[in-house]
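Following the same procedure, sequence and fold were stored together, as reproduced here:

>
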Amino acid sequence: MSDAPTNDWQSLSRSAKHIGNFGEGLVIYSLIRAGYEVATVDHVGADLIAERAGKRFAISVKSRLYRAGSVESRGVLIAPGDIEKLESFAARFQLKPLFAHVCSIVDDKVIHLVMFPIEIVSEVMSNVQSGFRKDIRHLIDDPRIHYCFWSEGALAEHDFIVSSDPPAQSKG
């Protein structure tokens, strides 16, 4: 075994954690904009609790980044264990369970957010060996699904290199 350092920085990266935190933040933003009071929870099965007008929800948030050139399908996948954990948490605290998925597609320069009650999963998604799956583009037109998106993020194109020279002053 070699003592030479490896270039496998991705195995040491916290990118997945940051993408997850970003997804939760985006869901929180969307809920606040819709008039909900939101709390984050660190519990098995749910990431957020939201309330508005006496209606209370437990929300599980999943986030996914499709990097440039990715040939993967733009699928939303919900594992059976995730459904069971969310339903258990929601029942314990008398909340309605919701599933939220944030999907960032670099090639399309768009971030999608879908959110829906867990009770309609089997109606809107296909049952596959690993759970329930559906291409996000096929979920966005269903009126039972909350959908919003953000596009054309210019931040990704900025290199953040700062010149040591002050900007030139215009004369006149």
Notes: The longest strand covers residues 55-66. The domain at 13-154 is CATH 3.40.1350.10 (Trna Endonuclease; Chain: A, domain 1).
